Amino acid sequence: REKIDFFFLMIRRPPRSTQSRSSAASDVYKRQPQQVPETLLLKRFGDMMNQNELKKCYIGAGYYNTITPPVVQRNILENPQWYTSYTPYQAEISQGRLESLLNFQTMICELTGLEQSNASLLDEGTAAAEALNLCYGTFSSKKNVFLVSKDVFPQTIEIVKTKAKFLNVEIIVDDVSKFDYKSHKERLCGVLIQYPDNFGSVRNYETLIQQIKTEAEAKVVLATDLLALTLIKSPGELGADIAIGTAQRFGVPMGYGGPHAAFMAVREEFQRKIPGRVVGISKDAQGRSAYRLALQTREQHIRREKATSNICTAQALLANISVMYAIYHGPRGLKEIARRVNSLAQILFLGLNDLGYQTCLLYTSDAADDLLCVDLGGRRIIKKKKSIFSL
């Protein structure tokens, strides 16, 4: 603080002679703060950090508390050899990281039920914007209307609107189950649906997706939750063309809102148009299997007019953490975690109703998500009855 004050005092004064400047430097040296040992400095910083108040977060909307297994934290997150958000460019010295990213792509394909995935994107919002760009480009920019479900996460809607502004695409935010698709057949390029949605509702969109493709001939994008997909139908089974989302569920802390690795999976017909990077398997000079970046369709590597994306940053470190989390728990462990969080949400739902609070949906035994929307505006007057927690 003294150095800063003295600096601004100096810049307000008129120029001095060399002797005066030397004298001023001597004054600065004399006024330096007292040096302290590293251990004492860390203690002081620790005391300052302990004044922070850690609150519970109930925002939902794609941000969830999670547990990072210590073995993943120590060997991946805290290991300098993995310290980068970028996909490896020198395949010769990056076989381990490339194999891990290939595992990430395989995990995404298996959970989404689609044929091709990329090696992560920046976040879920920009993944939705990339999906808009893919749908728009599929029809050679001739269809310029994109429908977004009103139950999509609010931050995703805003990012899609921003992207659409520069593509001259009209964004319609509406109830996808009541939308008139026939009247928009000539202009509708795609539909974005949240699955499960912003209010925790898990619906079977198979019939709706078929209706969209029949009446509007548009592409369908499902923004989904990897943990929920361990128990419910995959986007591929429902008939979706593109699946996007975030892998934050799989062992990545909320981090005050980010960063979190996103993903995009597509049907085989779109594999040449998928944004970001795709890791593949090739053969080296000796005929042995080797990993390398098979596809990079961003504008840094090819002509701008041919690029499918200008969003450069992947989240390779966090993608690796997510896939290692999945490998650590295995398919059975992931399903157990999904059932547990859903069971806890159902207990909370019953308890809130017992206390008189209104919730936005009725939980059923086949629901597979832990989102729960509660009206805090008031409580219903209910007859006194025995609490479910006292049974």
Give the tags.
single chain; 391 residues; alpha/beta; seven-stranded mixed β-sheet; two-stranded antiparallel sheet; 16% strand; disordered C terminus
Could you give a quick summary of the protein structure above?
By secondary structure, the protein is α/β, with parallel strands linked by helices. The chain contains ten helices and eleven strands. Strand 2 (about 145-150), helix 7 (about 155-165) and strand 3 (about 170-175) form a beta-alpha-beta unit.
Please, could you describe this protein's structure?
- This protein is α/β, with parallel strands linked by helices and 391 residues long.
- Helix content is 37%, strand content 16%.
- It contains ten helices and eleven strands.
- It has helices at 2-12, 18-30, 38-49, 70-77, 95-112, 124-138, 154-167, 206-215, 235-238, 316-355, and strands at 116-117, 145-149, 170-174, 188-195, 219-225, 242-246, 262-266, 277-283, 289-296, 357-359, 374-379.
- The strands form three sheets. A seven-stranded mixed sheet has the order 1-7-6-5-4-2-3, sandwiched between helices. It has a two-stranded antiparallel ribbon with strand order 8-9.
- β8 and β9 (289-296) form a beta hairpin.
- α4 runs antiparallel to α10 (316-355) and α6 packs parallel to α7 (154-167).
- The longest helix has 40 residues, at 316-355.
